Amino acid sequence: MTRPITAGVDGSEESLAALAWAAREAVRRGLPLRVVHAWRFQSHDAVDAGDAATQEGWVRESVGGAVRQVLERHPDVEVTTDILQGDAVETLVRVAGESEMLVLGSRGHGRIMGFLVGSVGQQVVVEATRPVVFVRAGDQPSAEAAGREIVVGQQGDPEDSAAALGFAFATAAARGATVRAVRAWTLPPVFAYSPGSLRLMDEAGGLEPYEQKALAAALAPWRERYPQVRVVEHVEIGSAGQVLLSVAGTAQLMVVGRRAHRTAVGARIGSVAHGVLHHAGCPVAVVPHS
Predict the structure, then answer these.
(1) How far apart are CA 160 and CA 239, in angstroms?
(2) Residue 33 · residue 77 · CB < 8 Å
(3) Strand pairing category for 284-288 and 251-258
(4) Are 286 and 269 in contact (CB under 8 A)?
(5) Which of 140, 172, 217, 234: disulfide with 177, CB 3.0–4.6 Å?
(6) What DSSP letter does each residue of 219-235 carry, written as one string?
(7) Which PANTHER family match (predicted)?
(8) Do 182 and 61 share a domain, yes or no?
(9) Are 98 and 3 in contact (CB under 8 A)?
(10) Which domain, by its residues, includes 107?
(11) What is the pTM of this model?
């Protein structure tokens, strides 16, 4: 079954930027585009907000206008539109599971503050089983120009980052872009190392060569699958979030893995994904671990 690229729209500037991004990606990958708006009937005592049918008509008119603009730019893309009544988070999580990826808008706060992810987006990215891409208001096609990279974070063993690496390589192949694979490392307490890992590090010639070999091993199957994609291997000491953000200026897309953490007050994403999502200036794809 062919999964569409799905864009969640609500009429805001950032959601229209997300729709435009999703449409370009659908064209590049040869996939259909699905446009979804989740809504609930709301009555207001102070103003005449109309009945449910009237409100749905307003929604359809707004979404229809956005879709017409997409078709003017990309007349060959296959587009379906769904106006779905229900809770926004539940609806978007469900449609994400039916999609190649879900694309949402996120307001920006400039270079320092980066993204402002709304409550809906924060909950969706925790629960979604498929990649979720966040696009800032004002995102332009020129940001996807040649020379700008797909930056992806890699950590742990090869299988730990397989989903994020696969997404990054597929995106780079569709765009003719370079993948910059980033592996950050720190100096942990010596007691954190097992005798086995210490032996492997000695054989590798030290800590940084060990990390370089670990990154190369994680990349090997993806290099084989996508031989046309140029790869830059980036190993640097520092926190993963800081190292990724240090190269965000060259990125047309940042890809990070996500493992949801369950707490007493609910689920949340890890600190690396959270930091990159809120401070990178480019679109960010959050990919759940397999």
Answers:
(1) 17
(2) yes
(3) parallel
(4) yes
(5) 172
(6) HHHHHHH-TTS-EEEEE
(7) ADENINE NUCLEOTIDE ALPHA HYDROLASES-LIKE SUPERFAMILY PROTEIN
(8) no
(9) yes
(10) 1-139
(11) 0.86
- Does residue 73 share a domain with residue 206? no
Cβ–Cβ under 8 Å, residues 38 and 92: yes
Contact 280, 160 (CB under 8 A): no
d(CA 179, CA 181): 6
Same domain, 159 and 286: yes
- Whether 113 and 189 map to the same domain: the answer is no
Per-residue pLDDT, 110: 43
Both tokens of residue 36? 């979804």
Final residue belonging to a domain, choices 118, 139, 160: 139
Q: Which positions ≥6 away from 242 have C-beta within 8 Å?
A: 184
CA triplet 61, 62, 66: central angle to 5 degrees? 115
Locus of tokens 């980036």: 234
Q: What is the CATH number of the domain that holds 162?
A: 3.40.50.12370
- The residues, any chain, with a CB within 8 Å of residue 200's CB and separated by 6 or more, are 210
User: If we measure between CA atoms, which residue out of 290, 54, 239, 21 comes closest to residue 133?
Assistant: 21
What interhelical angle do 207-225 and 162-175 show, nearest 10? 50
Between the alpha carbon of residue 272 and those of residues 2, 9, 113, 258, 277, the distances in Å are 31, 27, 16, 9, 8
Run of H or E including 276:
helix 271-279
What per-residue confidence (pLDDT) applies to 36? 95
pLDDT on residue 53: 65
Positions in the chain whose pLDDT score sits under 50 = 45-48, 109-116, 191, 264-265
